[in-house]
Model the fold of this input.
Amino acid sequence: MTDSVNTRELILGILMEAAEGKNYSHLVIRAVLEKYQYLDKRDRAFITRVSEGTIQRMIELDYIIDRFSNVKTAKMKPVIRNILRMGVYQLKYMDAVPASAACNEAVKLARKKGFSSLSGFVNGVLRNISRNLFDVTYPDVETEPAASLSVRYSMPEWIVREWLAAYGRERTEELLSVLLTEEPLTVRTNLGRITPGELRERLAAEGVLAEPLDAQRYPGLSYALTLRDFDYLNGLQSFREGLFYVQDVSSMMVAEYAAPKAGDVCIDVCAAPGGKSLHLAEKLAGTGSVSARDLTDYKVSLIRENIKRQGLTNITAVKQDAAVFDASSRDAADIVIADLPCSGLGVLRRKVDIKYRMSKEQQGELAALQRQILDVVCAYVKCGGTLIYSTCTINPAENEENVRYFLSGHPEFSLVKMEQLFPDEQLGDGFFISKMVKKNG
Done:
């Protein structure tokens, strides 16, 4: 690996910006990779792997460091804390990196960042961990299940306790395990411009391996592909031309549940960046209309950018607060999509640091906001129309319980179906989706 640009220094910069709470890691990593596009693909992969892995496993890494350091991670200088974290991640999870290299590079990095006086401390802690790494004892899963699973799978203990209560230990451990695995990138073919077969040929010509989903497992998603062996999306001409849209399999199911008919009027009340709205518009095949709404100018600009790339004409992006009633939309929509702000615990394979930013109190506030928005936007649904409520989380209070709350207060709606999708049961994210219909008369 070439270090003309010091890859470990870039990783430390990512950790300082993301792990210390200033920005989300997937955004920081993307920005660094775009800035250093000229780096060798292996270097870029190393940056991504160590950055994501260190943040993803941070609870376990801190636990290990605290077993060997007199100064606990919470009391360390942030630069030293993150140098040690990335060093331990390489020692434990990257066999291709020699232990000596992980230790020596960490010491060099400490000196380069102005901490020569602590380079001996960094060296001593990492070499001690290297010698004893696989003798570290964890909390006992039988006597302390929440603490044990929290450390082993780097999940905040309050989330583990919540899932243990909802799903039991075996199911919780299965979920925690899959959330540490890599998620395949799925895309939706822009059927107005190209067929899935033609798109596969275009992508193959660009050096990308594109594969259809299992037709038996994913009936109706013949337009979806998984992509592998590419460097970055903006480097693909087919992406820039809008021949496909990056979208999780679970998210694609929203439009499938909604099942729009030609000429339908659709409103997506929390639409950014626009994937579900675009999918509805595409299914309408130039008929009907989709109003893709969101709260801020920035989010609306994201939707407009994606509308332009996809080349759709029956969709508009509108700035509108979903929690504020829009009188002009009363009884106007055949389909209302309410994919609402949530705790995001289903997308932890893609956005690894959400779990550190969310709290039980915030989760409760989000559940209350979801109820508030549902009470507002249900008035936009015509008699006989459809209301889709969905989230990208795994939490009964935000999902099944909110549907029951809504139906108890709105007897004019009936439940058609609802489903909690788990990330270990499919390719996609953890996701909840429900379909309700407004009764006629």
Notes: The mean pLDDT is 94.
